[in-house]
Amino acid sequence: MRSSGRTVTEVAREIGVGSESLRGWVKKASAAQDTGSVPAATSRPSSRPTSPADPVSPRKPFSTSTVAPTG
């Protein structure tokens, strides 16, 4: 990277992230430094869905009374 002389791929492997993710973060940080702003802490969307796309219904508790006796 800039000051260390290592490649993005080497640094990404060392810290356990994808090289494309790190490359994007470096690009954002560099652009922020050029404009004097602070880069966003995350690349996740700032909003979330209001409800799940596929709601999951709760499971019924397991009942031993519905199991046939063995014997």
Order of helices and strands: HH
How far apart are the termini? 70 Å
- The total count of strands amounts to 0
Q: What's the alpha carbon Rg, rounded to whole Å? A: 25 Å
Low-confidence stretches: none
Biggest pleated sheet = none
Query: Helical stretch count?
Result: 2
Strand content: under 5%
* Oligomer description: single chain
Q: Quick one: overall form?
A: elongated
Q: What structural category characterises the helix and strand content?
A: mainly alpha
Helix content: 25-40%
Mean pLDDT rating:
74
Describe it:
With 71 residues, this protein is mostly helical. It has a domain of 36 residues. It has 2 helices and no strands. Helix 1 crosses helix 2. The longest helix has 17 residues.
Structural descriptors:
mainly alpha, 71 residues, 2 helices, elongated
Write the layout of secondary structure elements.
Elements: H1 8-15, H2 19-35
Helix pairs in contact: 1-2
